[in-house]
Give the backbone structure.
Amino acid sequence: MQVQLICGFLGAGKTTLIEQLLQRSEGKVALLVNEAGDVGLDGEFLARTRHVDIMELPGGCVCCSLRHDLVAAVKDIYHTVDPVKLYIEPSGVAAPSGILAALGAPELADLVQLQAVVGVVEPEVFLKEYRSGSFGRFYSDQLQNSDIILLNKIDLVPEHMVDEAEQEITKINPTALIYRTTHCRVQLPGGERHRLTVKSDFALHLQTLTIRPQNPVLVETLKKLAQRLQQGQFGQVVRAKGLLNTGLGWVRFDYASGNYLISDFPEAQSSRIVFIGKEIKSGEIETVLAS
């Protein structure tokens, strides 16, 4: 079974890339999704793409606390689904080295053919967080262990910033293939992974807040929420996403890197929204959503 790891910081575009990969895939494919929150959203987003077997591991990180669960899940998918290819989308705070170490477990040796690791990076966020040291160790781990790197969302930043990001990434990993993309649109080359894993002993510890609104949430309310997130009024929220009933239909809410998008969505299982960051002001967010 071919296994491909798609890694990247919160909101970089992993789900967008996987959606396209699933659309182009031939034969039976499976997807293993790990999210930082205690509810699965990406699996429900991607279930609309095509018929695909999806397994979710919410509520922890597959690079550390859920490592044994990851190995068990891969074995289960191999024996019960038997796909040609398995895509793994870890949490945006997971260290790729930990996941690769788990996939190298002896019990998976005869089951898994590890494909080139793909890392998705936002130029502006990368330059800011890597240089400031806030999430520098995460990016070092991600980029050193990626065979292919997508510099994504280049339409949102000036070209010189993309150039700077590529130069920094090349210093970290001079052998990686780097593609500049918008909405992760790229035809990825195939091939197995042959590089050694660069090990790291760290984990990002971010707070996760999950809210399940019992009443409809108006689109105008979500816009006000997004604007206050942009202003930093609810703490250092680096990512928010949700599926919400507005009373007039369902919408998907995405917030990352100061940008937000509210789009129509088919009826979902339930309303829920997840916030990831530091010093999150949960009470104030709940008040806004209830207004």
